[in-house]
Protein: MFS general substrate transporter
Organism: Colletotrichum zoysiae
Amino acid sequence: MELRPIPGRLDTDSSDTLTTPTSEHLSTDSNLNIVWWDGDNDPEHPYNWPVWRTRLNCTLVSCASFVAPLATTLFAPGVPQLMREFHSDSEELTTFVVSIYNLGMAFGPLLIAPLSEVYGRVKIYHVCNVGFVAFVIGCALAPNLQSLIALRFLSGVFGACFSANGGGSIADMVPQERRAGAMAAFTLGPLLGPIAGPIAGGFITSAKGWRWNFWLVAIVGTFLSLVMALTLKESFHPVILEAKAARLRKSTGNPLVRSKLDSGLTFKHNLRRSLVRPVKILVYSPVVTLISLYIAVTFGYLNLMFTSFTEIFENYYGFTPDQVGLAYLGLGVGSLVGVALFRLTSDRYLAKKAADANAAGDNSNVPNGGMKPGYRLTNLPIGSLLVPIGLFIYGWTTQYHIHWMVPIVATGLISCGNILTITPLQMYLIDAFHVHAASALAASIVLRSIVGAALPLAGLRMYSALGIGWGNSLLGFISLLFLPLTFVFLRYGEYLRKRFEIKTL
């Protein structure tokens, strides 16, 4: 017999992990103790939250995803001052003290993302906020280079929290058909943070010294942590349903009441399974592996620019340290253009493709109104072309000292291409992995952060050996090698995802 869900309860197969409140379910006498959403309009379901609360949560998560990457490069203009204070002239160490933060951000998601799928998003956010601010303050007080490097690494571990979990939080709160705008704004943080860092860092270093770059991050991080502690609401569906089940167990005295999304595992077993989930997704899903590699290389190019702009624009164009910060504006404007294009097109294209497929009867077994994850990739070919085009223009116009505006515009093409490449691929992972979106994103962030840390270390040597023109051309040719992957994802992505589906996550 088909029934509407009883308030606080729902009879259904617990293997179904879709958490939309619009699903239909069957009821039997054997599973009346299973808790689900209270119908289509359950106010506890994050999709049904008031608009102001959803926007507040998304805004806070997006702001936090900006602050942590800001710390990557904010003190980069102060590195020469720092190295003089600590009596070091090693070029590799100069680059490493900046990029070590990315290694922390590579390690952090492996712990943080799965823990958020056990304890919920909010608890992990609060713990990581405290850890991040504490270690950034430690950086500001560091007595020597060794302690600074260690503290930078640890601040990166905790700072990775929002990059790892933010996309999952947005998936918790925003339905698939309206997700593009929120996700585009969230993606801006990891891209604009490192761009804004050197602009502000140059002026702060000149006025106050390199330590004040860390104090600024600590002050902003503390303020944001307090606001989040007062206003942020838990959005992870399994944790919300488990809280509802706990209330019902207490009020009814029935110990058998449980959430529909309860895996039935012991806490220890569930924690162990969660901790290996990102690695499992990265290793056993070829689509995730290829997507993660593509994102890593694309993002790595930006990190190389962050660490090389000072030397390039000072040596080739005679920029002062303060003026070098303004060279990053091309990256910022390009990112904003990319976000605008993605926001205007992605949700519309998703809805159109789903409607066309439904009209043709091709989506009868596809959940969420036939909205396949692959429909998010419409902007990917554009982004995949803009990145190498921008690299070629940037390299050769700099090599031949063409007016400084031209290479800066070229960096705008690169950053626009980055947005139109990285954001669709991240959206694909979110739409494909649903409740485990944070772990899927963490898998991609691991490679992204490792390449982001390693590429700048090799980049300056590459420029010294090949020159700016051929050095950036080499990067452009590597980017072109990834272009066929765009069409593999578009044409065979769904097949590969289902062919190598991971049954137990």
